Amino acid sequence: MNEVMFTLSNVSYQYPHGQTALQNITLSIKRNKKIAVLGNNGAGKSTLFFLLNGLLKPTSGTIYFCGHPLSYNKKAIQKLRKAVGIVLQDSDSQLFMPTVFEDICYGLYHVGINGKEIEKLVQQAMIETDTYHLKDRSIHSLSIGEKKRVAIAGILAINPEMFILDEPTAGLDPYYSKKMIELLNNIHLQGKTIILSTHDIELAYEWADEMIVLHKGKIVLQGSPFTVFKEEDTIQSCHLDLPWMYVLQKLVSPLDEASSKNLNKKQLIQQLKNAISNKTCRK
Ligand SMILES: Nc1ncnc2c1ncn2[C@@H]1O[C@H](COP(=O)(O)OP(=O)(O)OP(=O)(O)O)[C@@H](O)[C@H]1O
Ligand SMILES: [Mg+2]
Fold it and tell me: Where do the ABC transporter domain residues begin and end (predicted)?
């Protein structure tokens, strides 16, 4: 099995009569990683995701999927979409069938899955995203957060190898944001690759194995959350902030890669408690 899912070699994209949204992107996306893409509004995150899913074609440069240059004929795109599912930033651009059930089914038909299997896959995806009760509802009547969960159910039902999620927690309340991350972690445990964009730096710091920071269509930082946020000046110049977990950890212990890797809130609180009790003991 190819360890590298995507390789982008000097990829640029300019919208017709518009902005150069991405410039000379060179990047590898390895299998079974959890990758967070950060960047301010207009940095090029959505454009990058459109390119990975074949919704857009590079103006220059080449995208390789599992070692082969992407083809854009109908059959190749159908194959790509079965392997790489995308949840768009704007759910209204993704959902268009009359009802929730029909919409989730449509994605499966589209990638060539037919027959009895469909109902089972749709039902399972609705259960996992807590959308079963919305089954017969009209898409137009759903709230923003409900639409997002239905869009995710549509991709989940296809069971792709890689999930691309453009701001998956935007519009979700804290309960469903947490559920979403749990769902993504479960998907990851099944061996899937996940790349998401977010403006939530706390989420990126705690969740990601790897981060990519885009600014004005270029990759400015890439690496583990630790190595990325360590570049504090670059982070600020990209209009981003430092996660409070990173800032707090810097206060309690000297930063080193090993101690900050996959640090979650619980571990950080424990470190804080240890630091406080060490201080008390020394007095
Ligand atoms: N359809 C389009 N036509 C022309 N320019 C576009 C189009 N879509 C996006 N752009 C431009 O391309 C650049 C990158 O946009 P993109 O949507 O990829 O940014 P983003 O990082 O996803 O931003 P956001 O955080 O606001 O979602 C921006 O300058 C944007 O104005
Ligand atoms: Mg976007």
Answer: 6-241
